[in-house]
Design goal:
Helix 7 crosses helix 10 and helix 8 packs across helix 10. The protein has 455 residues and is α+β, with helices and mostly antiparallel strands. The strands form 3 sheets. Strands 6, 7, 8, 9 and 10 form a 5-stranded antiparallel beta sheet that branches. Strands 1-2-4-3 form a 4-stranded antiparallel beta sheet, sandwiched between helices. Strands 5-11 form a two-stranded parallel ribbon. The N and C termini lie far apart (78 Å). The C terminus is likely disordered. The chain is built from 14 helices and 11 strands. The protein has 3 domains: 110 residues, Trigger factor ribosome-binding domain (Alpha-Beta Plaits, 2-Layer Sandwich); 101 residues, Chitinase A, domain 3 (Roll), CATH 3.10.50.40; 198 residues, Orthogonal Bundle (Trigger factor, domain 2).
Length: 455
């Protein structure tokens, strides 16, 4: 068999295979002999149908079966002989039969990228260390206090910024000039609005400032063209608001009693502060490490520019889109109901997906250069940690991963992590302290949850 390999663009190659007639005839004869034992042909005893009759009566079936058997086998031999790392499913570009029954077939394949790995040792890197400050703790406690706030009626003044005003709202959309559609009125009972907050239109803030219960105010809002939900987009709406209540938030004092109400294990406000600090410092450390590892990967990708297989990029984009949909579902949104150009969103993931795929090939090559392997003990530890994170038994998780044929994928993830660890261990690292952890909201939320559980 003659094999010709032609390079194409972006990790694509063409393999032209010239399969000799004797190979084709041998495979056809083998299939014909097997078929002769199975089929019934009038005038012949079962199992005694001549090969010539089989080839005449079942010409198409023989050819189809021969191709189904011979092409994958021949392609596999060609890939092995040429030492190609094929990714994805090959496709047939062209197929011709010669007058002598030989086959001339051309396959399109994608292969792993071929590149020379740049120096990955002693990389100059900057590690941003996020530091938790006392003021970050104060802000976190204030958020917990906001969650414990009570609404108290305002009796000695009119409404002002920060007050919660409750209204019965009637909105009348105005149709565009010349439009014949009838627009439905907007009715909302007991709608609560915080005067001056970011999420409230300035027209509402202006219209409902300086009111008391029993007052009625009228104002209009011109909604922007891209407003959600769509029924308000681009509309001019005249509102009439009947004020039923004006209340102010009263926050509890940040004292020992407040801390004890959050969690019965806390005796003093200092106990609460230490608990929040501990959570915030853990999160800050995690953010530091995650960003540092990401920055290291970016440096490696920056130093190694090469084309990556489109097949793998598409799979990575699929993975990113699935993650996005899961996040949206977790926030109570159904992506199928949103008027979003998902093709544009998908295309917007391409650059990051390409870099992520490129990073995978880089780490794979580093692991190969450094003879990095993953022992069974390391794989078992990885599975145990994963099982613990999802609250399942080690044996059950391993059984599921084995059934799904994903153990090799996990082994590869550990191998790549070890390769990145090696790069980091040899790097020239400059540290930079960053004030503020950027994760204080989570810590405050955890403190609030502790209070709920305690109660």
């Amino acid at each position: 068999m003659n094999i010709t390999v032609t390079d194409q663009q972006q990790c694509k190659k063409q393999l032209r295979l010239e399969i000799p007639s004797e190979t084709v005839r041998a495979e056809t004869d083998k299939i014909a002999a097997d078929l002769a034992r199975k089929v019934s042909v009038p005038g012949f005893r079962p199992g005694h149908v001549p090969k010539s009759v089989i080839k005449t009566r079942f010409r198409k079936e023989l050819r189809d079966e021969m191709l189904a058997q011979l092409l994958p086998h021949s392609l596999g031999d060609a890939i092995k002989e040429k030492e190609l790392k094929v990714i994805g499913e090959p496709s047939v570009e062209d197929l011709k039969f010669g007058d002598d029954e030989s086959i001339d077939v051309t396959f399109n394949v994608e292969v792993a990228p071929e590149f020379t790995l740049s120096n990955y040792r002693e990389l100059p890197l900057t590690k941003r260390n996020y530091k938790v400050r006392d003021e970050d703790i104060d802000k976190a406690i204030d958020r917990v206090r906001q969650g414990q706030a009570q609404l108290v009626p305002v009796e000695d003044r009119t409404s002002q910024t920060g007050d919660i005003v409750t209204v019965n709202l009637l909105g009348t959309p105005q149709a565009e000039e010349g439009a014949t559609e009838t627009l439905e009125e907007i009715k909302q009972e007991d709608l609560e609005l915080e005067i001056g907050s970011d999420g409230v239109f300035k027209e509402f803030t202006e219209g409902l400032t300086g009111v008391r219960p029993g007052d009625t105010r009228e104002f209009s809002v011109d909604y922007p063209a891209d407003y959600k939900p769509d029924k308000y987009a681009g509309k001019h709406v005249d509102y009439k608001a009947e004020v039923t209540a004006v209340r102010v938030k009263e926050l509890p004092e940040a004292d020992d009693v407040f801390a004890q109400g959050i969690n019965e294990d806390f005796k003093t406000i200092e106990d609460l502060r230490q608990d929040i600090r501990s959570k915030m410092e853990t999160e800050a450390t995690q953010r530091t490490e995650n960003e540092f590892r990401s920055a290291t990967m970016e440096k490696l990708v920056e130093r190694n520019r090469f084309d990556v297989p489109e097949y793998v990029v598409e799979k990575q984009i699929d993975s990113r889109m699935k993650t996005l949909f899961r996040q949206m579902a977790g926030q109570g949104m159904d992506p199928r109901l949103l008027k979003i150009d998902w093709e544009s969103v998908r295309e917007g993931q391409r650059d990051r997906a390409q870099n992520e795929v490129r990073g995978t090939f880089i780490l794979d090559k580093i692991a190969e250069a450094e003879n990095i392997e993953v022992s069974e003990e390391e794989l078992t530890k990885e599975i145990q940690e994963f099982a613990q994170s999802i609250g399942q038994a080690d044996e059950a998780v391993r059984a599921r991963l084995t059934k799904e044929n994903t153990l090799d994928s996990i082994r590869e993830q550990v191998r790549h992590r070890k390769a990145l660890d090696l790069v980091i261990a040899s790097a020239e690292i400059r540290t930079e302290d960053i004030e503020g952890p950027g994760a204080d909201e989570t810590a405050a939320g955890n403190a609030g949850n502790a209070g709920k559980h305690a109660s």
